[in-house]
Each structure stands twice: as C-alpha cells, then as structure tokens.
C-alpha cells in the first residue's frame, strides 16, 4: 500500500517546518535525520522563492558551500530541482553563484477549497506556479460522497494533460469546519451541514489510493498561505481572520501553526466580547461573530439578504458609514484588540467578508485598536487585507499538500515515483 | 568580557527547547550544532528528572546506545553529570542500565521573584533541588536600584557557603510586568510603579558582571515552571493565569512559550468580555480583570480591603457563595471559555488569587465553561490549580536561568568555569 495512514491524516500546519522542529521536545538528532531535514529545508527555500542562488542558500541555511552543493546535487538527481547560471549575473568579480530552481520534470499538487456554493481547484507546481484552475458549482446540501465525486472528477480533469512522468505528491483540501488533528476527520462543518466525515479517505479512494490527501480548516490554511506567499511572509506571529456568517481564526505563533490539543484552536468567532449581548447560534450570547458576522453586517446595511457576494457589493458602495455600520466596525476593533493583547502579533489579516467591511469602517476600527491595545505605540502590529485576496485558502491547501515533501523529499518522491510506475504498468 | 549582551537580554521561554527548534525556519543543521543540541537535550532530561537511565535516554531521544554513551561521557567529563548503577536494579536478566544524575560538583542558579511586598530568592541546583531560600521584605515604592541592591545582597548570602568550585550558571528574575523580548528591559511594571528599567543590568553589575541575568514576566515564568515541574508536565498547549489586582496570562503552544512579537503577549486581563462594563485602569471598559481581579472579588465579599492575603483567607471560609461572588465565578468561566475556544489547550491553570477563588465558585465556573466551550465534550481541557502552589514563578525563574545551559552546555560551562578561575585569581 503506497499511501500510509500517516500522510492521509496529517493535519494542516506542518508546511515548511524543518524536521527538527517537528520533533517533540527532548528528541535527539542523528545524521540521517539531519540530512533529510536539510534536504527538505533547502527544497522549501526553492519552493517559496522559485529561484534562489546557492550563495543565498548558504547564507540562509547557515551551512557551508560544499554542503549546500551536495544537497542541491542530491535534489537534482531526484529531478526536482535544476541549477544554472542566470544570464546577466556575470558582471561582478569571481565566479557567479549558480541558481537553483524547480526542475524540468513537473512536481505538483492539487489544491482544493470547498466553499458553500462551489469547489475551487488548482494544480500548483513546485515553486508555487498555478498550472490550471477549475471551479465547480455545488448544490446546497450536497453529501460528502457527492462532493468527493466532484472533487475527484475535477482533479482528473486538471491532470488530464500533464506529462506521464509528472510527480503528483499530494492533494490538500481546505474547508469551513473543524478538523481533528487526531484522526484528520472533519468533525463539524456547520455551513455544509456535515459532521464526522472522513472526507480525505473518500477522495483518496476515488483517486485510486495513490495520492495522499490532507485536509485543513480554511482559516488555518489562509494563514499558512499568507505566511508563505502573502502579506505575512517571513513573520513569526500572525492572526488571520476569515469572516463570513461565522468568524474563524488562523493563528501562527513563533512561525508555526497553532492548532491546539485536538485541532480546535482558533474559534475566535465565539470569543465573548459582550456578555448578555446578541444570541449566537452556538447557544451563547455576545459572541464576537454575532457582532461582526454577515448577519450583523446585513442588519447594519438594511439588507434583507445575508448573501456574502451581495454584502461585499453593498460595502464597496459605502461612502459614509451609518451609525449602525460604524458600531459593527467598533466591535471588529474590540475583538482585534483582544487578539492583539493576547498574541502580540506582527499582523492581523482580515479575510473573507471582513476584507470588504474594513475599508468601509476603517476609522472606527483603527480608533478602537489604538485606544484598546495596551502600549499600542510600542507594538508593531499592522491590520492588513490578505495579499492573496480570495485565493488565500486555495493557496494554503496547496502549501499543506506540499508540506510532507518539505519535511522529507526522499520519502515523498519515492512514493510518488512508485505511483507513476504502477500507473505505467497498469496502462501496458 | 565574560557576559556577552546576548545571554543578558535573552528573555524567558527558551528553556529546554532543543537548539534546532530555536533556529528560525529555514536554517540547516551541521554536525557541531547537532552535537551541542544533543548534549543540551540530554542534560535537559537529567535536569527535569534528576535521575534517568541510559536506556530511557536512548528511547526518549531516539538515538542509539553508543551515541548516548558518548554524550553522557562528554557531560561527565565536564563534571555536570555522574553515572552509576542503582542498587536494586540488578534483578532482571542482562546488564542493568547505568543511571545518569547531576554530578558531584554543584551547578546552580539563583532564582528571584519580585513581589509587591517581598523579594523571594532560591538557590536551585541542576535537577531542580532547592538548596536555600531567602525572603526579603521590600518597601512600597522602592526604586529599581534599591531592589537590585537587595537582590545582590541576598544572592551573595545564598552563595556564602557553597564550595569554591561551584558553577553558578545564571540568575533568573520573575516580576509582575511587561518585559521586552527585544532588549530584555522591564517596559512597565504597574504594581512596582517602574517603567523602562534595565533591571538585569543593574543586578548584573552588582554581581561583578560574571553572572548572566535573565528576566521574565511572572505569568510567563509560572507557565514555564508548571510545564517543567508542575501539573502541565509534558503537555503541549497550556494556559496559566496569574490573578491579583490584574490578571496576566502565561501561554505555551506546541510545547514552547508564546511571547509575541515584542514580548507583550498574554495580556488576557485586558481581553474585553463585557463591552460597556466596569471601567478598567487601562482606560477601557469591560476588561476581564475588572470582573475577576482583586477589586471585584473584594466587592463581592464585602471586604473594604483588596489585600490579597486577606482575600485568600476570606475565600477559604466561603461555604455557600453569595450571588455576587457567583457572578465573579461566572465571569471567570466566560474568560476561561474564550481562552479554550482560542487556544484549545490541555489545561488552564489558575494561579495567584484565582487559586483561592476557584474552589469557592467552582460550580459556576465549570458550568460556564461546559456551556460556552464549542464541542466541549470532544476536548481534553482541564481547569487545574498550580502544582507548585505559590512557588510557580520562583521555580520558573530558575528554569529560565538554566535555559541557556540546556541549549549549549559546553558554552555555558566554559563561561562559568572562567568566572570561577577569575574569582580564584582575584582571591589570591
């Protein structure tokens, strides 16, 4: 069996984390583990930047030139990177540094985002290039099996024209729901009306069992993407908010995803900011999402519909916000302030509906944050919109799928190679 | 100069973190770094457990027996560990495993806790044994210089009778205030009425410049201690609350301290849970600490004084809590619930005044937590009192001081040896 249970159920957040950092505290390190760690870390640099000089790699990784050369050589023999001297790089004295890029052979993942109204898919290559996209409408109330069928069909379609030696190293799926880190199951997805679904297994079966499928919560993948390729690139402490009817949080602390004990961290929408306030669908009162979610925004705009696209359009036309909308802005500021006081992040990123809300009520949000943050002037926290716009979650799903490869390229490439061989044998 | 600026200003939270985990994502690892990492990790096991078999070390560190034997041998030559066969360990077949313990030579730190009314000090040996304690009263309004003088005198007193070859590897100081991770200065300590104080430098000068002094926020050290030696031992995600007039939070996520971008994380007392509620000294309304801090507890108890010791005594006599006190309990539950929804921790530890409050209103706290936590039944979060009681912060200060040694024993022992030699030369 090619796909061991481990990669299938690995949850989000391990992307680009060096092997050593994944070990629980107290573990030692041996030479073979160090080599694999170094290979994965180097490949991670190539993936993030898509073109990096060996001199830069030497500097960033703190290893000497001959070690870097050996590591690059090993990845080159695997076919996943190539090196060359870029034109125009010869002006300085001395030998120009070779550059390392993704290799000729296509190495890719399928990224999937389950939305309430559609499934978004992309084929993403090593280095982050998007080679193809699909968007498939979903019926309201579709079952997990129906959606898994749709995902598998669209993925097959995306892979239809790739060369036969393409290494498909995984599929990543982002969705609006709680995913257990213990077994990789979707625990609960209120907007899809799913509970306790082994969705990754459903999809994996339909892909012939050859491709590891990993799944993660949308906000957790949003923060991963913004950290890897968006406005939070290189930052250590990041809060990403995905607003919709509910509000979810994706968190990075010390450069790594914060998922919690069983994977349920980040439920910032149910942070109570107004004890005795509006009733929340969770059964409590005064949860943050009752004050800033789609229902509150629709009420403030006088809109009968909570449809997100419609609300975004309405918010874009707001010139002078009404007192009711300003109050929503103030409540957005109160919750952001709480999170700044708790996490002291470099950035709070406002995704989903909040991306449209913030520009309309920015003065009220910013005033509340400035007033409510302890020692606001000493902090470095910025409030920003996502660098990847609507694509944060989809890109994060791709990063999630590439995660195993950046931990241990040898293992992942070997598995993907075997899959290619089996498909070839089967085709004969 | 023995004491480089680096160890002086290192802030809390690095204790027992393997070297590899301290590197920013993207670094490689070379053989020398791996050896130092492994030496530090092994010493960390000996420090935590004070007696551990080589067989256990082999298992825990995932290294082979000969590597473990070599590492232990190197630490033994440094004089910091010793190995022997424990009596009674010979009943089984085969060779009994040697046990590793702290060596004969004393290796110690001075732990200091600055409280509002006193300074607590302890000399703590490798392995965690407390070899001596002092408690020094502090005048209200004492200046940083006055307190530094008192700390230095009490530390000298604690070191008066140690053998001359004792290796003093550092001093750790815990205090109720915000400590910048950027420069190690006390940014603001409202209860001491200090702001922008380079306290570690003041103390270090008075100790002859030979001993690295590191300083940390009390809640951050409380969580460190409970994680190392208290109720959160071995857990990955921990919330520690230190309640007093204010409420501070110490956070561990994925086994490591969460300090934030500039070290200001954990200000959970200013999480607003009741917009428009009671006025807080921070200038806002409805901050959590206005609902559960000493002032709120005193009001609920009808006590004219906010003195913590008096409130603790009053709380201990509560048999049936009044409606007002039950409401304080409910607000304690609301804030705990927010933190559980945000962090999904294994444990929330209630320190300081909250240790006395919780038993008095436990039913109300627990009901609120059970009701307000999303998917409460799937979680593993426990609400507990500190395992180290009043000593959490002091023990955490000791762990902080030992931190550098568990990262790189060779470097720290060499520096401490040089200090011993210089003192000898000076004494001749």
TrEMBL record, chains A, B:
Q: Where is the composition biased (Polar residues)?
A: 1-11
Q: What is this protein called?
A: ROK family protein
In terms of Gene3D superfamilies, this protein maps to:
3.30.420.40, Winged helix-like DNA-binding domain superfamily/Winged helix DNA-binding domain
Q: Which CDD domains match?
A: ASKHA_ATPase_ROK_BsXylR-like
Q: Where is this region: Disordered?
A: 1-31
The entry's family comment says: Belongs to the ROK (NagC/XylR) family.
Pfam family, any one: ROK
**Record's superkingdom?**
Bacteria
